[in-house]
């Protein structure tokens, strides 16, 4: 009888622990944004020949400045949805030569005027 009671207690505990996952949808989980959130209209302001100060004014400070390739700035944004665990990642890489933008790569679309240098030096 004592063994049967212990077996029932063990079964009840294991059922109780596994039952918690059924109510997982009721638990609030926060959204987790990380990095530089960049909008498309900011990227459209970029022009070839802009200096580092102008790029920083338009996009903000980069998440990463490569210590071995100081002419490359990385803007990375990652968003994890707390409810669905869906992960969204966007990246923008700005390449400089002689302190001027020479190319931009990443998940954003450049404007048609990107290859036209700025007039008067203002973004």
Automatic annotation (TrEMBL):
Listed under GO cellular component are:
Bam protein complex
- State where the protein is found: Cell outer membrane
Q: Which GO terms describe its molecular function?
A: protein-macromolecule adaptor activity
Q: How does it sit in the membrane?
A: Lipid-anchor
Q: Which Gene3D superfamilies match?
A: 3.30.1450.10
Primary localization class, coarse: membrane
Please state every residue range assigned to the domain named Outer membrane protein assembly factor BamE.
Answer: 35-104
Q: What does the subunit comment say?
A: Part of the Bam complex.
The family annotation for this protein states: Belongs to the BamE family.
* PANTHER family registered for this protein in UniProt: OUTER MEMBRANE PROTEIN ASSEMBLY FACTOR BAME
What exactly does this protein do?
Part of the outer membrane protein assembly complex, which is involved in assembly and insertion of beta-barrel proteins into the outer membrane.
Q: What protein name is recorded for this chain?
A: Outer membrane protein assembly factor BamE
């Amino acid at each position: 009888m004592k063994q049967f009671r212990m077996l029932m207690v063990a079964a009840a505990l294991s059922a109780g622990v596994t039952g918690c996952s059924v109510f997982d949808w009721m638990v609030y989980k926060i959204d987790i944004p990380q990095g530089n959130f960049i909008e498309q209209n900011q990227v459209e302001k970029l022009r070839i020949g802009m200096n580092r100060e102008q790029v920083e004014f338009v996009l903000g400070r980069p998440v990463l400045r490569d210590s071995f390739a100081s002419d490359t700035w990385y803007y990375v944004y990652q968003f994890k949805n707390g409810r669905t665990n869906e992960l969204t990642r966007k990246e923008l890489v700005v390449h400089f030569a002689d302190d001027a933008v020479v190319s931009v790569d990443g998940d954003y679309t450049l404007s048609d005027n990107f290859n036209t240098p700025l007039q008067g030096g203002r973004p």
